[in-house]
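#onboarding

Welcome to the new folks! Below is a worked example of what a typical request in this channel looks like: someone posts a single protein sequence, and someone else replies with the predicted structure as tokens. Don't worry about understanding the tokens yet, we'll cover that in week two.

Example request:
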Amino acid sequence: MKSLYDISVGAASGAATLFAKAIDTLTNGECKSKTAQFCQMQRDVFDKLNAALADNGWRDASTSGPAYWFHASSLGEYAVARPLMRALKEANHGCRILLTFFSPTGVNALKGAATLPCDIVVPMPLDTPENAARFLDLVKPDRAVFMVSELWPNYMSELTRRGIPSFLISYVAKPGTALRKPWGGLLRDVVKGFTACTALDDNSAAVLLESGARSVTVCGNPALDNAIEVSRMDYRNDVVEKFVKAAGGAGVFIAGSVSDRRDTEMIADLANDNPGTRFIVVPHEISEERLNTLRMHFKGNSALYSECDADSDFTSIQVLVIDFVGALARLYRYGRWAYVGGGFTRLLHSVIEPVAYGLPVSFGPRVERQAAPRHLIDIGVGTIVENSAALARWFAAVKDDDDKLALVKRLALDYVSHQSGATARVVEIIR
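Example response:
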């Protein structure tokens, strides 16, 4: 099984390099698809890493505090990592933190950010034995921290061989997890290598223990601490505020991380059936084709954020489409109701972010990978909607009921308050 895995990943690495070269030749590097961005990110990935290490003076920091390597798949997992990295920095001002992403979305979103809780952000080289050894030779981490479900056999093998403590944080088991399958032995070997793991619920902890994990602690989700922190930050967006003001106090519906055809059609149906309600729509993936397809579904006038400024006239605009990434968690503060996309795939996006502002939230039925949606359903803050009719019924029930909205807000904020504090517990485990 390990040999087959290595052959597959090695072939993917070679294909990514060839595809990236073809993209450069055929499109002058202008292809914006997610696959193209991933392949271009993997091309010369070690040159990017070496440049980042040199620019940061990483190799000159041998007398400072410990070096941490954090790895997240994309922005959803970054929400878990962010408060942990910030807490480690506050606890040890001399520590160094390098963050890798598997998805180009994460790297691109943090590129040029004014403040970050880490020192370096780079792509993670694909998980071949050669890449894992070369990466660790360059970074020399004292600790390696993986978010949620990032299980990489060759990196774990090399970390174990070098005696570098490693941690899996906020694991949540989905039904039918590969860890419980006869053919999941390679992933179980990864789990056995972690120094310690944290899980979001008892079932997830049981899966890890059955898989041979050495130490498992059930504790809350640092992503919730991150959502709280973001909700309390000062944030102003003049364009969005003018759009919200044009609603005249009627409230704005936020549709976040709209991901696929079903998300798009449901939100468009809701907007078209409620022409008096303003919508802010944040697609998960930004591309010209995706934006054009999205806007075609709306009967009312729509505008791209990039087309607007603080002097724009939003009188006749029903839908504002956000065509940049990285601000969704902050934009929820402008809403009264929320829908979170990705719920018709296995990658439902963060439902915690709108709840941190006290918003009622709806989402698709695929909630198996997260504990929070199930908790929110139980307390009456979250609702599964499987089609346009269900979304319309949910919205009709909460749209103009101020008493119900006030109750949901209280329940949501109570939930956030009671579930907070996981960051400190996880940091103690890592340290």
